[in-house]
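Input (Tyrosine--tRNA ligase):
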Amino acid sequence: MSTYKSELLRLLEQRGYIHQITDAEGLDALAARQVVPGYIGFDATAPSLHVGSLVQIMMLRRLQQAGHKPIVVMGGGTTKVGDPSGKDESRKMLTDDDIDANIAGIRKVFERLLTFGDGPTDAVMVNNDEWLSQLGYIELLRDVGPHFTVNRMLTFDSVKLRLDREQPLTFLEFNYMILQAYDFRELAQRYDCRLQMGGSDQWGNIVNGMELARRMDGRELFGLTTPLLTTADGAKMGKTAAGAVWLNDAQLPSYDFWQYWRNVDDRDVGRFLRLFTDLPLDEIARLEALEGADINQAKTVLANEVTALVRGREAAETAEKTAAETFAGGGAGEDLPSLEVGAEGMRIGAVLTGLGFCSSGKEAKRKLAENAVKLDGETVTDPGYLVEVPKGGETKLSLGKKKHAIIRR
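Output:
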């Protein structure tokens, strides 16, 4: 039974978002008494975020559902530097145009999940390049530098782990934590932002920002982190053998996105329903109690609800219909991935890599040797097999039981 007074912390606790809070009692009292503006930062390194960022996006949604104000901070400035957390190497440098295009792509998902506007609890999206690019180097060193010690910065996991692995850490990246701390202070001044949220790997960066605001302005700020999100088998959320599970449909078809959720481990269903859907908790309890083959009902609900939130209800319905036609009826749903081949046909290995079902010709050969590849239900094992399709016709390709596609001409 929760002891929290505020709807915000009760909601976050019941849904499984809370790992650490800097001052739970203080934040609880504040959230019970007034609207709390809270932020999470997202760097713009690609035109879409992936599933690994979805728990953070949902945290901002929960903040708004509990009557508070979400601030989405796009790291137009920090993307130019690079967060060393969990990285073995420096990220490649992007141009301003690249970063702006990425932010435009990323915004689409937030517009589905948050309500933007000018009201007291409406979400806002800001770009930290607005203030970071205006900072003079001498001014930053003089005003902010004295509040950081190199001794302490070297103890942060993002720095320590890289050094322990004897991987180079540039001076550029070493500054990232200072810039993120400065963001929190700047947002507190501009928007009266009182709360920064993030993954557990961001704890040190969040505390840095709180301390900087306290020392420079005497402000009391709060931090809250989520548990490190891994699947039941220990894999990092959002990564698959085929690559990242992107949130935008331009980077990943809705059918593949739906399938990712439909195929989660049985042990993850309840947790993911709490984190990634708006279903009532009693309904989630009923679904996660299902056993045997019935748990597949819960997985379909999970896939439908997450896809509807991120891609829209129509995308979820189309994906479910495609799956039903493909798996149950042996047909070929309209939402399946497809590949066009010319009159001269295409080798089976090239088809598998062209669809993204295999990452290389070597992997394609292995799958063929494992009898995992079928064309219209017939097993194909010859790496030299030529896939030919009559003009206007189509062929269904299957890799294992879960990957299907249409080959057309």
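The chain has 18 helices and 15 strands.
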